[in-house]
Amino acid sequence: MPKAELHLHIEGSLEPELMFTLAQRNHVAIPFASVEEVRAAYAFSNLQDFLDIYYQGMGVLHSEQDFYDLTAAYLARAHADAVRHAEIFFDPQGHTTRGVAFGTVIAGITRALDDAKTSYGMTSKLIMCFLRHLSEAEAEATLDEALPYLDRIDGVGLDSSEVGHPPAKF
After folding, report:
1. Looking at the predicted structure, is the pLDDT value of residue 85 above 70?
2. 144/31: higher pLDDT
């Protein structure tokens, strides 16, 4: 049966195996000795526990190819599950604050989306998120960085820690 994925945070789709591959490729130390330890860490009981591993996973993403591999891996799994349309959220601030250029992030993601359209006939929308725990000024700076890519960005959202960071802040 054909499906639509209407809310997927691409960084949250990072599988343990790919986390290890990218950590090795980019010479990034991760706090897990095995794929099984990563899987065990996903047995979280609250949003903050999830966010802790979410941000650890982000740390292995450095190059356009990394973002392509992340997105292509999700899209292949989605295609196998009969997903025909995916609305994908991404967190540029989680990368730009680590020195990864906005253009690097979006180029890898959109290249994978374009390939999925060609290979699978899968349509997609891309939603840029601002991290709630960062300032309004930092969100505005990210929006400025996004301006050259607005033809590829279909919406804007908020994510990350909700406690103490209401939407009204933005």
Report:
1. yes
2. 144
Select from 131, 120, 123, 99 the least CA-distant residue to 11: 131
Per the DSSP assignment, residues forming a β-bridge with 155 are 127
Specify the DSSP class assigned to residue 163. T
CA distance 57 to 47: 15
Q: What is the CATH number of the domain that holds 132?
A: 3.40.50
pLDDT score of 165: 65
Range 103-137 burial, b when 16+ CB lie within 10 A, else e: ebbbbbbbbbbebbeeeeebebebbbbbbbbbeee
- Whether 143 maps to a domain, the answer reads yes
Residue 22 within any structural domain of the chain: no
Look up the domain containing 156 and give its range: 3-13+63-169
Each residue of 134-156: pLDDT tens digit? Answer: 899 999 999 999 999 999 999 99
Does the predicted TM-score (pTM) go above 0.70? yes
